[in-house]
Amino acid sequence: MQKGNISVQTENIFPIIKKFLYSDQEIFLRELVSNATDATSKLVTLARKGEAKGDYSDRTIDIMIDKEAGTLTIRDRGIGMTEEEVKKYLNQVALSSAQDFVDKYQDDASIIGHFGLGFYSAFMVADKVEVVTKSYQDGSTGVRWICAGDPSYEIGEAERDMQGTDVILHISEDSKQYLEEDEIEGLLLKYCRFLPYPIRFGTKTETEYKEFEGEVAEGEEKPEPEKIETEVDNVINNTDPLWKKSPADLTDEDYKAFYRELYPMGEPPMFWIHLNIDYPFHLTGILYFPKVSGKLELQRNKIQLYSNQVYVTDNVSDIVPEFLTLLHGVIDSPDIPLNVSRSYLQADTNVKKITGYITKKVAEKLSSLFKEDRQAYEEKWPDLGVFVKYGMVSEEKFYDRASKFALLENTEGKFFTIEEYCERIKEQQTDKYERLVGIYTADATRQHTLVEAARDRGYDVLKLEHAIDAPTIQTLEQKEDKLTFVRVDSATPDQLVQKDEEKENLLDETQQETITKLFTDAVGTGGTVELKPLDVQDAPVQIVRNEFMRRMKEMQMMQGMDANMFPDSYQVVVNANNPIVKERLLDVEDEATRAENATYLYQLAQLSQQLLTGADLKAFIDRSMKMM
Q1: CB count, 10 Å around CB of 208?
Q2: What is the pLDDT of residues 21-31, one digit of tens each?
Q3: Could you tell me how far CA 357 lies from the centroid of its own chain?
Q4: Other beta carbons within 10 Å of 206
């Protein structure tokens, strides 16, 4: 068996870098500014250790556009490079000076880069790249390196007064948008707004108005304030973001101000969680609970993922549990495994640990809010409930914690934990199978008549009106022993909680057949008819929907399936014991009037659930006028 070394053709490297290494062309700027940040961090570390002598207080990184020359320059005042280092790190692809530095100084430096490929992203937008650099070391001279996007390069001496590096991109014809100030400023704000050293992009004009301080003669108007315009450095970034600070040093206003910085157009958050952990991984961040209302999808992709203050992505579904992608805020961790282009996460055991930690911290925060101020917690529940229910449905470990502080709201506006509610309904709403029956409405206004009918029987009715409530009900039924839920329109009030009770039918067989036929003709093909002996005071006609079939249809629609697979089935229940049925139907001799009355009673039941519209509603009103 022969052995050998795999060879790489250097002329093929640049096309691969240009087309396949990075998911977005614009990432080149993030990579080059990150390299400048690393160079500055290295010099700060060496100065702190006494290995670099001099005044290195100016750590500004400059981004400069020269439209006439067609260049974009990234300038740092960092560690710089000697000619030997230029040859080592620029001429050898995937050899990282950052990794070398980290290996040497371990915990003394916070370095962003690791792969040694970021610099070459410059060739995605540039026909030619120049590097002018000077090492911090005494006696160093400037070095210029030039490459036109192929394996050949030039290197020689260069004039440079200060230590640090200029990376000069000669922008290619098809990338001229990167010579526009708005384009570059937008990318800097996206990728570099929280880097640890000032990122300066030219200057900006600040305007202030100075009030007139002199005396105004009687009868004269006070002069307008003096407009004063000042040209100042346009520093893009916040070098000391809130998540890097200790929670003990921060006020509520600090957190709210930072939220406004992240989301200038957003509503104020309900509350927040400050993440700060050093072991077994490093993780900092702030997660905000926004007001969700019913807009689940509009809230996603609001958590920004950073690595050492460098923006990575706002798609954090791999590190944050699905239900918490509804939160807003920032997560920063150097221990999150990124792909080579630092654009997305790679599978890793640390990711699972971080996910578990975030879930645990969120549960602890919610639990403490519930225990410390239940009234305030209940006031936030319309928004907060979406997070909690979503988490209970999607995360088993979260369910175990959340079941203690998840709330159920009834139609009276009162709130209960699951345990409290089970105790509340135990006496009245335990069925013949020893199951607790939670009765609920999906629309308290539309189903008002049905809600009142259930309450008249002494039942408590829950409001479960959000889209997340349907899967929540199923989860509760699976997790809680002998607890089931039925909607107020799933049965007649006497059958919402099934008991071993039978009522006498006051009609004989002939009368039952007559009434059944009348209503079957009135209903047509829209549903089935059942004649039942109910209480005398119960409505003459009621419309019910089988709980199981309705849930199947709803689940089908949520999954985007064809809703027609399960037809919209319902049952028309006629109360054989209600005197109106006998008076309007059996005591009327004219068959046409009987049929008209049967249709009227059926439409009255539809109206009670707001199911009657259009021409049918007009016909119902006409019938009502005749009967008055």
Answers
A1: 10
A2: 555 788 899 98
A3: 18
A4: 11
What is the rounded distance in angstroms from the CA atom of residue 82 to the CA atom of residue 74?
18
DSSP secondary structure string, 66-101? ETTTTEEEEEE-S----HHHHHHHHSSTT--HHHHH
Q: Where are the alpha helices (DSSP H) in 192-277?
A: 252-262
Q: Cα(69)–Cα(55) distance, rounded to whole angstroms?
A: 33
CA-nearest of 575, 568, 563, 565 to 602 is: 575
The sheet carrying 483-487 orders its strands as 461-463, 436-441, 483-487
Residue pLDDT, tens place only, 404-458: 999 999 999 999 999 999 999 999 999 999 999 999 999 998 888 889 999 999 9
Domains of the chain by start residue, with CATH: 11-201 (3.30.565.10), 242-372 (3.30.230.80), 406-495 (3.40.50.11260), 509-543+564-627 (1.20.120.790)
CA distances from 130 to 35, 71, 73, 579 (A): 15, 10, 9, 96
The two tokens of residue 273 are: 């969680």
621 forms beta bridges with: none
Q: Which residues contact 508 (CB under 8 A, 6 or more apart)?
A: none
Q: Is 128 helix (H, G, I), strand (E, B) or coil?
A: strand
Closest CA to 390 of 302, 329, 505, 470: 470
